[in-house]
Design brief:
about 450 residues; alpha/beta; Alpha-D-Glucose-1,6-Bisphosphate, Chain A, domain 3; 4 domains; seven-stranded mixed β-sheet; six-stranded antiparallel β-sheet; globular; metal-binding
Length: about 450
């Protein structure tokens, strides 16, 4: 019996292939997905990992056996699958393990219109069915099985993105893109085609073994090649995509990283101008600059917990036009409230190309504070250490505490958030302040308690 508790996460399925799951299990997931969603038709796509085509086809077989017609879009980015789900009005499944190592694979599932499927929105029910069927007795096949057909949506995906951001009048830009041997190598050439961009590609060859570096640009070690290439070629900007190309990271003309908070603020300002105001969602770890910029541009900022399910839920509730996270996930109402790093990248390119200055000068107005970045501490007793931090800061007259997501402590000149990881014995600390000296002081004070 497979241990599904190890591979069914809060928002997706993810595990080592074939040790933790395989094509036979993928077939059961396909059947369970159809049963839980009640879908008569679905769309399925996959990334470039060696195990992805087989797992994806097995899922399609399981879905078709229960009577659903399956549209296979083949190789795609995760946001390309969301596009297909939105455009075709179908539930969808994307086979990817994002930035995880090559031996991993997974499934990101959504309902029609790219609405998320998580533990509380169907994933727990899917898991229960798969467990039941895996123990014995496979699902009863439909009287009339569904069909499996192929459809290429890459050109339509690119056209939709480009309809949302006008880049036709920008000045020529030299752009280095590091695809990390992931799906950005598949989508970028089509999305950028015909634009006034001098593209310098890095690691565009699709290779799910990731021979050059991990496809996780959140780790500074994985953008070293991009930074060097930007400096060496005199490029205006560098972009890095993760394995399934739903997240995008930006470096400026000096090769220096642009924080996702600064990108969130920049895109928020543009979306607010486009929609003549509106609500913008930001998670509680984004910079103070994000709600400030939103208000300055006539918008309403709404703070939420970390995680795409919370962002998407709050966007739906509020009718928000845009949402951003510190992890470089960017969500757009014009993209079915789903996240697309490619659309965020087009916004940054447009903003840069519409004016004569450098990217570093452009983003300076959105990058107003000093920050620690996320600092992880391995601790056996997460709750105990967090409680000790709460006690240390709770009695101060100059601080306010809230526990929307972990512990956030806010003072006049600084704030920090301390959160427990959902999957590892880690406490994650983020500190922001008006100057570096204060960041270091608060960081060291909190870590001394956490690591005591």
């Amino acid at each position: 019996m497979p241990d599904l508790s190890q591979i069914v996460k809060a928002y997706d399925v993810r595990g080592v292939v074939p040790d933790q799951w395989d094509e036979s299990l993928a077939e059961l997931f396909g059947a369970a997905f159809v049963r839980v969603t009640g879908a008569s038709a679905i769309v399925v796509g996959h990334d470039m990992r060696p195990s992805s085509p087989g797992l994806s086809r097995a899922f399609a077989r399981g879905a078709a056996a229960l009577g659903a017609d399956v549209t296979e879009i083949g190789l795609c980015s995760t946001d390309q699958l969301y596009f297909a789900s939105g455009r075709l009005g179908l539930p969808g499944a994307m086979f990817t393990a994002s930035h995880n190592p090559a031996q991993y694979n997974g499934i990101k599932m959504c309902r029609a219109g790219a609405a998320p499927v998580g533990q509380d929105t169907g994933l727990a029910d899917i898991r229960a069915l798969v467990e039941e069927w895996a123990e014995g007795g496979r699902p009863e096949p439909a009287a009339a099985p569904g069909t499996i057909t192929a459809q290429d949506v890459l050109a339509d995906y690119a056209a939709h993105l480009r309809s949302l951001v006008d880049l036709t009048g920008i000045r020529p830009l030299k752009v280095v893109v590091d695809a990390g041997n992931g799906m950005g190598g598949h989508t970028v050439p089509t999305v950028f085609e015909g634009l006034p961009l001098d593209l310098v590609p890095l690691f565009f060859e699709l290779d799910g073994t990731f021979p050059n570096h991990e496809a996780n640009p959140l780790d500074p070690a994985n953008i070293v090649d991009l930074q060097a290439e930007v400096r060496e070629t005199g490029a205006d900007i560098g972009l890095a995509f993760d394995g399934d190309a739903d997240r995008c990271f930006v470096v400026d003309e000096r090769g220096e990283p642009v924080t996702p908070s600064a990108v969130t603020a920049l895109v928020a300002a543009r979306e607010l101008a486009k929609h003549d105001g509106g609500t913008v969602i930001h998670n509680l770890i984004t910079s103070w600059s994000v709600p400030e910029v939103v208000k300055e541009h006539g918008g309403t900022p709404v703070r939420t917990r970390v995680g795409h399910s919370f962002i998407k839920q709050k966007m739906s509730e509020t009718g928000a036009i845009f949402g951003g996270e510190h992890s470089a996930h960017y969500y757009f109402r014009d993209f079915w409230n789903a996240d697309t790093g490619m659309l965020a990248a087009l916004h940054v390119l447009a903003a840069l190309g519409e004016q004569p200055g450098s990217l570093s000068a452009l983003v300076a107005q959105y990058d107003r504070y000093a920050a620690s970045g996320e600092i992880n501490s391995t601790v056996a007793d997460q709750a105990g250490r967090a409680a000790a931090v709460r006690e240390a800061f709770g009695d101060r007259d100059d601080t306010q505490l809230d526990e929307l997501d972990g512990l956030t402590v806010t003072a006049a000149d600084w704030w920090f958030n301390l959160r427990a990881s959902n999957t590892e014995p880690l406490l994650r600390l983020n500190v922001e302040a008006r100057d570096e000296r204060t960041v270091h002081r608060i960081r060291d004070e909190v870590l001394a308690i956490v690591r005591a």
